[in-house]
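[Meeting: bench + compute handoff]

Bench side (C.D.) handed over the final construct sequence. Compute side (W.E.) agreed to return the predicted structure before the next meeting so the bench team could plan truncations. Sequence as handed over:
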Amino acid sequence: MEEGQEELIPTRATLLHRLKDWQDQASWQVFFDTYWKLIYSVALKGGLTNAEAEDVVQQTMISVAKHMPGFKYDPALGSFKAWLLNMTRWRMADQLRKRQPRLVEYQEFPPDQELCLAEGERAIPASAQVEPDLEKLWDEEWEKNLLAAAIAKARRRLDPNQYQVFDCYVNKDWPPERVAKAFGISVNQVYLAKHRVTGLIKEEAERLQKEVV
């Protein structure tokens, strides 16, 4: 499982390839752990209830699993990020239909506009109309998810005490003097820990950003 954790988001083409094997439980677990919060947050902030958002997560994962065996990723046509947004949007539309039939309808596109070649359900290309608010929300949540992944990867490379110093100073907003006293270090070492951890997180975020598929 440690190897799978190193493939943390954004999903790489190698992970997408491994998902074609339904028996690869480790890769599917990585995929679920990586994206469920993203999908849930977008659904919830998109106006759905907790129960509806949970259902969107479940149904989106099922849809992805169904499409993976015949899925062909082509970065020249679009990103996996956009494809997953469309999958999520369709599942959100399903929830709205349950509230009020015919409230939202699927939109079909000719084959030459398909983003990713999967059987049964076409992804909407970037040139097609996408709800601006939902697209903006997806981008915001995607960046949050990416940052969380960068922090998680950075923490594995850091001494636990060093990250705790950073966490107290930056996240918990403790005064540097209080942090120094709590950890038995100098104020200058607190500043150095912040610089070290911030730099590592930025490094991981930039590296992950380049790996978006």
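W.E. noted at the follow-up: Residues 2-129 form a domain with the Rna Polymerase Sigma Factor; Chain: A fold (CATH 1.10.1740.10). C.D. will use this when planning the next construct.
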